[in-house]
Design brief:
Blueprint lengths: L14 H5 L2 E15 L4 E2 L3 E2 L3 E19 L9 E5 L2 E2 L1 H13 L10 E9 L9 H21 L5 H15 L11 E4 L13 E3 L11 E6 L10 H7 L6 H21 L2 H20 L10 H17 L4 E4 L5 E6 L3 H12 L8 E5 L5 E2 L2
Parallel strand pairs: 5-7
Antiparallel strand pairs: 1-4, 1-14, 2-3, 4-7, 4-8, 5-6, 8-9, 10-12, 10-13, 11-12
C-alpha cells in the first residue's frame, strides 16, 4: 500500500509567523460522479472497495477561509461558518468536528480563528452530493494555509495528495474531487499508486473520448434524502451481499479500466449502469431496507434504454445514493441527447429541472 505521512509536529510551527497570521484563501472545487461506486467503509473513513469517478465542472462549491491569529484576549468564536451568506449552525457542528479530527495534520488550527464562507453553484436541494465539493474545497484551503504559514507542501503532487487525504476525513467521496478528469480512490493490486487514504488522478492512458463526456443531471426530487449516505454506509456492515459486492467492485474496476483505455463505450456503459443498480440493490437489501429511487427514476431509465436501442447512441445512466439520474454521454452526441431529454425526460423532472454538466478540469484557486 502506498503510504504517506501527513502528520505535522507542533514544533514545526514558526511562532513569530503564526502571531502575524492574518489572511484569506479561496478555492473552487467540483463535485464528482462515481462510475465504480464506493459503498461501505471501515476504520477512519476508509473504503471497503476501490472507486473511480468523473470530476464534474459546473456543480461546484466556492469556499473562502479567512484566518487570524487567536490572541490571549480574543473572545471571537474559533470558527464561524456562512453558507450562502447565512450563518449555518447545522453545518457548523460538522465543521467543528472535522477541525478537531485533523489537528495532528494542521497544528496551527488551535492558534487561529476561522471565518468560512461557502456557496454552491447548484441548489442545496438539487440532490447533488455537495459534501464532495464542499469538503474538498475546504481541504484545499487548509493546505494553502499550511503552505502559507509553514512553508511546507511546496511540491504540487504532495499538496494534492494531502488535500485529498484531508477531504476524505470530511467526506469519503470528496477525496476524488481534487483531481481533473477521472480519479480513483482505494487500493487495487493492479494499480500501483493506489491508496486507501487518498485518491489519485486516473486519466493517463484513458481514451480522449471520456474526457469530453457530458453529464446531464436530471432532478427527479430535490428533497433531502430519507436515509443519509453516512447511515447507508453503516448498514453495509450487516448486509448479506456485502462481500460479493466488494468483489464485484474490484472486478468492475479492472473491466472499466480496460474500456477506458480502449474507448469501448458500450462496455463502459454496461458497467456504469450495473454499478448504479448494484448500489440501489444494496439499499433495498439492507436491514432495515430503504428505497431512494422514485417512480420517475425508473421511468427515465426505461425511456433511456428504449431510446438507446432504437438510436444506438451511447448514452448511459448512473445514480448517486439518491433518486436523481445522471445521464453520461460523449460530447459529440450533445444535440441528439438534449433533444431526447427535452422531448421525453423533462416532464419527469421536478419542475422540469436539470443541470448541464461535463467532465471538468478539477479545482481552481481563486484568491
Amino acid at each position: 500500500m502506498h503510504h504517506l505521512n501527513f502528520t505535522v509536529s507542533p514544533e514545526q510551527l514558526d511562532q513569530s509567523k503564526l502571531k502575524m497570521a492574518d489572511g484569506s484563501v479561496t478555492w473552487q472545487s467540483p463535485s464528482n460522479i462515481a462510475l465504480i461506486k464506493y459503498w461501505g467503509k471501515y476504520g477512519f473513513q476508509l473504503p471497503r472497495n476501490p472507486s473511480i469517478s468523473f470530476t464534474l465542472s459546473q456543480s461546484h462549491t466556492t469556499t473562502k477561509v479567512e484566518y487570524l491569529y487567536k490572541s490571549e484576549e480574543s473572545h471571537a468564536d474559533p470558527i464561524r461558518l456562512f453558507f450562502h451568506d447565512e450563518e449555518s449552525p447545522k453545518f457548523l457542528k460538522k465543521i467543528e468536528h472535522f477541525f478537531s479530527s485533523i489537528v495532528e495534520f494542521f497544528p496551527f488550527i488551535p492558534h487561529l480563528n476561522f471565518t468560512i464562507f461557502s456557496e454552491n453553484s447548484f441548489p442545496h436541494s438539487a440532490g447533488i452530493a455537495s459534501s464532495a465539493s464542499s469538503m474538498s474545497a475546504l481541504a484545499l484551503c487548509l493546505c494553502s494555509i499550511e503552505r502559507e504559514l509553514m512553508g511546507t507542501l511546496q511540491d504540487e503532487e504532495a499538496f494534492f495528495h494531502k488535500a485529498s487525504f484531508i477531504a476524505r476525513i470530511g467526506s469519503g467521496s470528496a477525496c476524488r474531487s481534487v483531481y481533473p478528469g477521472l480519479a480513483m480512490w482505494g487500493m487495487h493490486d493492479q494499480v500501483k499508486e493506489s491508496s486507501q487514504e487518498y485518491a489519485i488522478p486516473y486519466y493517463e492512458g484513458v481514451d480522449p473520448v471520456f474526457l469530453t463526456f457530458r453529464d446531464a443531471v436530471l432532478i427527479v426530487d430535490g428533497e433531502e434524502k430519507s436515509v443519509s449516505s453516512r447511515a447507508g454506509h453503516a448498514l453495509m456492515e450487516d448486509n448479506i451481499f456485502a462481500p460479493v459486492r466488494y468483489e464485484q467492485a474490484e472486478n468492475h474496476l479492472l473491466t472499466l479500466a480496460e474500456s477506458l483505455k480502449k474507448g469501448d463505450l458500450v462496455n463502459f456503459g454496461n458497467i456504469v449502469e450495473e454499478e448504479a443498480l448494484s448500489l440501489h440493490a444494496l439499499m433495498m437489501t439492507s436491514k432495515p431496507s430503504y428505497l431512494l429511487m422514485k417512480p420517475a427514476t425508473l421511468e427515465i431509465i426505461n425511456r433511456l434504454r428504449s431510446w438507446r436501442s432504437k438510436t444506438n447512441i451511447p448514452a448511459y445512466f448512473t445514480l448517486d445514493a439518491g433518486p436523481n439520474v445522471h445521464l453520461l454521454y460523449p460530447q459529440s452526441f450533445t444535440r441528439e441527447v438534449e433533444t431526447f431529454i427535452k422531448e421525453q425526460l423533462l416532464s419527469l423532472c421536478e419542475d422540469g429541472r436539470w443541470i448541464r454538466d461535463y467532465v471538468g478540469k478539477g479545482p481552481v484557486r481563486l484568491a
